[in-house]
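Exercise 3.2. Students should predict the tertiary structure of the chain below and write it as structure tokens, then compare their answer with the key that follows.

Predict this chain's 3D structure.
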Amino acid sequence: MSSKFIRGCVTLGLGLSVASFGSVWGEEISSQSIREIQRILNEGVAQGVRGERQAVEQVLQYGPRGIPILVDSLQSPSFRVRRLAARVLRERPDVAAIPALSKGLDDSDPSVALLCREALVALGIPALRYLNIRKKTGLSTRQILSMKQVEAEYYQEWVVAQLRSMSTREGTIGLYQGQFRKIEEKGESALDALLLLVEAREHFPHTIRYLAAGALAEIASPRSRVRLQKAYRRGASASRERPIQNVLTVALARVGDDSPLKRRLEWYRWQIGIHSGRRDRWHYELGYLLYLAGSLDSAIEHFEVCLELRPAGHATAAYNLSNIYSRLGRVDKAFEYLEMSIDYGFSDLDWMERDTDLDPIREDPRYLELTSRLQRLRLKQRDGLGR
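Answer key:
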């Protein structure tokens, strides 16, 4: 290595050592590549925000070859160099960088610590395993708190990704038995992530928070009771929050507090009594709440009233009735309402295929006939031929 390159490293505080690269990182790194990446980092720091952005894009082109240089850069005396290296590692996280990134959690510059945390969150399980080992080696309180935050953010992102995947291509979302089993398997960390989602009204889409509430209605534990009560009280007066609040009352009933559910049921009955117009809406919402709470016979009553009041406007009510009758083992009624829901406009075959409430009737030849009908309908719609 030339003396000019060594002086450049000292100037930047990169502390590079060619001997430490190569076989350790699984790919031989030439001195020319090191010099080039060093130059990119140097110019990026010198040119400010725009230069740093360009430097990130250029270093990313080196792929895994640039990782050891970036790792070494996280130890630089210059916070600008550390920040730039952390930005690149956040854009393309690599498991080889986990030890250096975990040290970066304790960086004196908050922006560097944040970037390192985001990179570790993106790395997921390998990073969590390493951090759990590190927790046992006598770390500072600050490092332990940072590691716990990495774990919380990872599980939050993982849970959000799971919830996003529950929407079909047609945009249908809903709740069915066993829907959140994969989340439940992650234990208390995933449960904490769900609670954070329902609490954070301003930060997550309404649909994600609705599904998070649905997950809590299925898997919440008694230790969640206080936080569930707090989340319920925060949104109690907002009409847009009503679907989420309804599901939270079911979650609270699961953990031993059924008073919000009872009050909500009485409120709906009061709404039905005082409104002469669009009572179908209140019957539908009450029916769905009873359905979620497991009161299937009462839910049937309200869904059927809903269809009597406004048949063609409630394909979903007919679909929900098919779900209920399927669960009750009343196969003929299940198919009657499933066909009715399709007649009224329900067409989401993907949702039907994943909805476990319909499992009891899938082996019936009539189910295959209806799914074939929906497939033909999908082809017609794709070709612009309508229903």
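Discussion points: The longest helix spans residues 141-164. The mean pLDDT is 85.
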